[in-house]
Design a protein that fits this description.
The chain has one domain. It is 0% helix and 52% strand. It is built from no helices and nine strands. The protein has strands at 4-7, 13-16, 23-28, 33-39, 48-52, 58-62, 64-67, 71-74, 78-81. Strands 1-2-3-4 form a four-stranded antiparallel β-sheet, with no helix packed on it. The chain has a three-stranded antiparallel β-sheet with strand order 5-6-9, with no helix packed on it. It is globular and about 40 Å long. The mean pLDDT is 81.
């Protein structure tokens, strides 16, 4: 699993991507809890990046998806989480 994360202004951490999953969630370090926030358009494994934008949204870009063992697809797309 190769999740990407970005700390939000609220102190919570957006965790997105990962191998064989299209999920995203928020981790709250003050309570130690994790909650599901939605789904990604693409499975973003190794090489994905999460960037906190000035308005507090998170841009999730790139990554790769390995399937059928020896076939790899590199994403050239991006997603924004408000």
């Amino acid at each position: 699993m190769a999740d990407v994360a970005a700390r939000l202004p609220s102190g919570k951490v957006l965790v997105a991507a990962g191998m064989a999953t299209k999920t995203a969630g928020l981790y709250d370090p003050s309570s130690g809890s994790f909650s599901f926030t939605g789904s990604l358009t693409d499975e973003r494994d190794s090489g994905a990046r999460a960037v906190l934008l000035d308005d507090g949204a998170v841009l999730v870009i790139g990554g790769e998806w390995n399937y059928r063992v020896y076939r790899t697809h590199f994403w050239s797309t991006a997603e924004i989480y408000p």
